[in-house]
Amino acid sequence: MEYEKPLFFEIMSYAVHADRDVVDMVSGNPDWEPPQSLRDGLREYADFDQSEFQYAPSEGLRDLREEIAARRGVDESQIVVTNGGGEANYLAMARALERGAGDEIILTDPVYPYYPGKTSMLGGTQRFVPTDDDGTLDPAAVRAAASDDTACIVVNSPNNPTGAVYPEETVRELVAIAEAHDAILVSDEVYDHYDRSGRFSSALSVDSDHRIVTNSFSKTFAITGFRVGYAVFPEQHVEAAKARHMLVNVATTRPGQHAVLHALRNTDPAYHEANRQLLAERVDTFTDALDEAGAEYTDPDGAFYVMARFDGYPGTVANTKALIDDAGVAGMPGEAFGDAFDDWFRFALVTPRVEAAADRLAERFG
Q1: CATH of domain 7-34+269-365
Q2: What's the DSSP call for residue 135?
Q3: Cα–Cα distance between 349 and 355 in angstroms, integer?
Q4: Do residues 344 and 332 make contact, with C-beta atoms less than 8 angstroms apart?
Q5: Are the CB atoms for 158 and 219 separated by under 8 Å?
Q6: What whole-number distance in Å separates Cα of residue 304 and Cα of residue 62?
Q7: Cα distance between residue 176 and residue 233, in whole Å
Q8: Domain extents for the chain?
Q9: Quick check: pTM over 0.90?
Q10: How is 26-83 classified by DSSP, letter by letter?
């Protein structure tokens, strides 16, 4: 089977090799500092005994799993620590498909493009449900799309790329739809610390054997390079997920897990609030410039992204590259995220140069 290379890499490479200064707004790599407690945990680890430099337990360090379990209100035996949120989603989607309860995976449109890629890799069939214009998801649309062939429903809240946040009633309805069709809801909650609406609700708030929650510390602590994530499985799915995880990755990084544990135990909540405030200010700066440019845009309630549409300038790959050349701003083409927003662009507000990018777009389109 041939796999399509994600467009992220093509656009990033084009921007890096451009003949001018470019503001990178392609990927969600936070530019702010991790908490000091995380750096302290890494330094502490460097002086550990040599035995601590070997394989970690495959399912993750017990202390870390216990810390996560206490925070999420589950048993530590339900948690598998993974190689980032990407592997957590892979394990969850694989578990949904391998039960033999169907081969269809319901995805939203627009969608984070790695979900369709994983669906193809796992031999599943993609079925898309469009969101509303503001990125919110109507459970009735999911219910209409679901059938006995549905193995899995994958959602992401706060959402990449729209910034929408799903409230409790939406999450409960999605779990109920999964239960009605013997499917599994996979709820990717990697941006949970970047909810600015106060409406975020974890799928863990619903007691069900038909939901798997995935998360990662990549965004939470601004450490996308550490690759420490986790999935919370219902008890009957844990052993199968652990077996696949062991075969794919053996285990994830021991020093990274230790540093994350140290950060969980020693980071003041003010750290997260400061980052949310920083992003709120960047959203205001960026959308003010989009107003000057006469653009239509999403007003995100969470995550790192703004989607924008410029009249007469659709978000194709060719126009994304032209925007790099003409304005020195690198975003992502809307067509990378599906059909519903294929004439839009997505911009990641994870650069201290948001104001410069905003000015360039206002000048280009204003």
Answers
A1: 3.90.1150.10
A2: S
A3: 10
A4: no
A5: no
A6: 31
A7: 17
A8: 7-34+269-365, 51-266
A9: yes
A10: SS----SPPPHHHHHHHHHHHTS-GGGGSPPPTT--HHHHHHHHHHHTS-GGGEEEES
Q: Going residue by residue through the chain (366 aa), what tens digit of pLDDT does each one get?
A: 555 667 888 899 999 999 999 999 998 999 999 999 999 999 999 999 999 999 999 999 999 999 999 999 999 999 999 999 999 999 999 999 999 999 999 999 999 999 999 999 999 999 999 999 889 999 999 999 999 999 999 999 999 999 999 999 999 999 999 999 999 999 999 999 999 999 999 999 999 999 999 999 999 999 999 999 999 999 999 999 999 999 999 999 999 999 999 999 999 999 999 999 999 999 999 999 999 999 999 999 999 999 999 999 999 999 999 999 999 999 999 999 999 898 999 999 999 999 999 999 999 998
- How many Cβ atoms from other residues are within 10 Å of residue 357's Cβ? 25
Residue tagged 């031999």 (tokens): 123
What is the fold of 51-266? Aspartate Aminotransferase; domain 2 (3.40.640)
Place of tokens 């449900």: 129
Q: What are phi and psi of 333, to 5 degrees?
A: -70, 140
- Residue 179 tokens read as 């239960």
Sheet holding 184-188, edge to edge: 79-82, 229-232, 211-216, 184-188, 150-156, 104-109, 125-130
Which amino acid is present at 311?
D
Is beta strand 305-309 parallel, antiparallel or unpaired with respect to 329-330? Answer: unpaired
Structure tokens at 64: 């870390």
**Is 360 within 8 Å of 329 (Cβ atoms)?**
yes
Name the H helices within the chain. 7-16, 36-46, 62-72, 84-98, 114-121, 139-145, 168-180, 217-220, 235-249, 254-266, 269-292, 317-327, 354-365
